[in-house]
């Protein structure tokens, strides 16, 4: 999926065939912020307005805006795979974190 990008936020683009409109939301944050329009160009404008409105509302209410990505996340992979990954990382002289980071980086860059 391709996303709109603005001020560090990503917005989705979806089609509602029944209502004959486009809609989306700010992705990768726990707050729900939606927008809609009739054309892709209008939808991108609505996305940008939604981001600006979200940030302004957070400022006015004293709430910290949610960041799309913190740089860390938890992954549940089960005990057996966790053990295998930790051992493999040790074999090649890396921490488990660096080992996993390298694998994710390699895979995402090969599909960019």
TrEMBL record:
<protein>
    <submittedName>
        <fullName>HicB family protein</fullName>
    </submittedName>
</protein>
<dbReference type="InterPro" id="IPR035069">
    <property type="entry name" value="TTHA1013/TTHA0281-like"/>
</dbReference>
<dbReference type="InterPro" id="IPR010985">
    <property type="entry name" value="Ribbon_hlx_hlx"/>
</dbReference>
<dbReference type="Pfam" id="PF05534">
    <property type="entry name" value="HicB"/>
</dbReference>
<dbReference type="InterPro" id="IPR008651">
    <property type="entry name" value="Uncharacterised_HicB"/>
</dbReference>
<dbReference type="GO" id="GO:0006355">
    <property type="term" value="P:regulation of DNA-templated transcription"/>
</dbReference>
């Amino acid at each position: 999926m391709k996303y709109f990008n603005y001020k560090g936020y990503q917005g989705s683009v979806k089609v509602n065939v029944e209502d004959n409109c486009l809609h989306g939301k700010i992705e990768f944050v726990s707050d729900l912020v939606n927008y809609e329009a009739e054309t892709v160009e209008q939808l991108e404008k609505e996305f940008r307005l939604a981001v600006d409105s979200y940030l302004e509302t957070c400022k006015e209410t004293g709430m910290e805006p949610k960041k799309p990505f913190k740089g860390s996340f938890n992954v549940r992979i089960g005990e057996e795979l966790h053990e295998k990954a930790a051992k493999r990382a040790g074999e090649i002289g890396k921490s488990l974190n660096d080992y996993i980071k390298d694998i994710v980086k390699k895979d995402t860059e090969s599909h960019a």
